[in-house]
Design goal:
six-stranded parallel beta sheet, two-stranded parallel sheet, Rossmann fold, alpha/beta, GDP-L-fucose synthase, NADP+ binding, 10 helices, 313 residues, GDP_fucose/colitose_synth, binds ligand F7E, binds NADPH dihydro-nicotinamide-adenine-dinucleotide phosphate, globular
């Protein structure tokens, strides 16, 4: 019988048109996978239980990667907690219940570093989960993700399926969301500096104080790590995925400004939230599995800016 990780095995990438899903698709294709399955949210709304069960019953994937979610930056999370909770719970519960019914042997659930307490000890180990209060701007989203981790653990315990969870740090790359209000900081700054340069604006405004620290992983490295985990990781605990280093938002802005070629001033809008002061992941468990990132922040920002110029600007 074919192994679930053979290149001919049907692999369903939920959310295959998004930042993460499209990178997974590229990585799986590059690895020779020939039987990839995907559906847009217009074709298959994973919040709809019947549609989700019909889809999984038809395709019976050997591997499911859950990269479908309602995702957004700090303001989208702060202002739409109801949708971030409800949509994400429904998407992941429907997907996992349907995958359980067809006994999908291997499933990777993607969470986020925001599951950890706001003031977790740095770098954040997986064992910090549920040891303190969450960051209020994204607590609803974090609770949905924590429920997903528990869902994976429950299925493993009760049904013996080899499902796993990974917790990526902040991601960026091609096919990101560059919308000025709903996006994450890195694509937001690429757009803002590009537009400021084009209009010769004297200054660019950063949300918040610029002092929070964030860790950024290029999405192609994340996709590579996901494949590595599907091949080498099989345990109930979620596993962190990051680069093991972080920068301040001010430092990130200076890097993006240099990349874009913007030479004006930087100022701060202190009416916007800072969010978590720091969330550097401890990635020692991942490194011990023999994986490491290969794209530096400088190279990744340059490549993402080139992609933005070609596809969005
Ligand atoms: N971006 C980041 O910095 C981080 C992301 N993650 C996690 O990675 C995963 C993917 O995020 P990312 O790629 O950034 O997000 P995107 O917003 O780029 O992509 C999300 C994908 O989910 C699909 N989707 C959303 N709602 C539905 C629905 N109701 N039914 C079916 N499909 C749906 C979308 O489909 P369509 O395009 O067809 O509408 C889209 O392809 C998420 O679980 C997120 O939590 C974790 C850490 C950081
Ligand atoms: C991935 C992660 O993403 C979110 O958490 P976050 O890390 O706080 O995300 P962010 O990228 O939006 O902001 C990072 C920092 O950057 C500052 N900042 C400056 N200027 C802009 C700006 O223009 N846009 C944005 N978005 N932020 C800006 C901003 O004020 C903050 O201090 C959650 O959705 C969470 O749920 C989650 O999982």
């Amino acid at each position: 019988m074919r192994s679930v990780l053979d290149s001919g095995a049907p692999v369903y990438v939920a959310g295959h048109r998004g930042l993460v899903g499209s990178a997974l698709w590229r990585r799986l294709e590059a690895a020779g996978y020939t039987n990839l399955i995907g559906a847009s949210s217009a074709e298959l709304d994973l919040r709809d239980r019947q549609q989700t069960f019909d889809f999984l019953r038809e395709y019976r994937p050997a591997v499911v990667i859950d990269a479908a979610a309602r995702v957004g930056g700090i303001l989208a999370n702060r202002d739409h907690p109801t949708e971030f909770l409800s949509d994400n719970l429904r998407i992941q519960v429907n997907l996992m219940d349907a995958a359980l019914e067809v006994r999908t042997p291997r499933l990777l659930f993607l969470g986020s570093s925001c599951i950890y307490p706001k003031f977790a000890e740095q770098p954040i180990r997986e064992s910090s989960l549920l040891t303190g209060e969450l960051e209020p701007t994204n607590d609803a989203y974090a609770i949905a993700k924590i429920a997903g981790i528990m869902h994976v653990q429950a299925v493993r315990r009760q049904y013996g399926l080899r499902w796993i969870s990974a917790m990526p740090t902040n991601l960026y790359g091609p096919h990101d969301n560059f919308d000025p209000t709903s996006s994450h900081v890195l694509p937001a700054l690429i757009r803002r500096f590009h537009e400021a340069k084009a209009s010769a604006a004297p200054e660019v405004v950063l949300w918040g104080s610029g002092t929070p620290r964030r860790e950024f992983l290029h999405v192609d490295d994340l996709a590579d790590a996901c494949l590595h985990l599907l091949e080498h990781y099989d345990a109930p605990e979620p596993i962190n995925v990051g680069v093991g280093a972080d920068v301040t938002i001010r430092e990130l802005a200076e890097l993006v400004a240099r990349t874009v070629g913007y030479t004006g001033a930087l100022s701060n809008d202190l009416s916007k939230p800072d969010g978590t002061p720091r969330k550097l992941l401890d990635v020692s468990r991942l490194l011990a599995l023999g994986w490491k990132p290969s794209i530096s922040l400088e190279d990744g920002v340059a490549a993402t800016y080139a992609w933005y110029q070609e596809h969005v600007a």
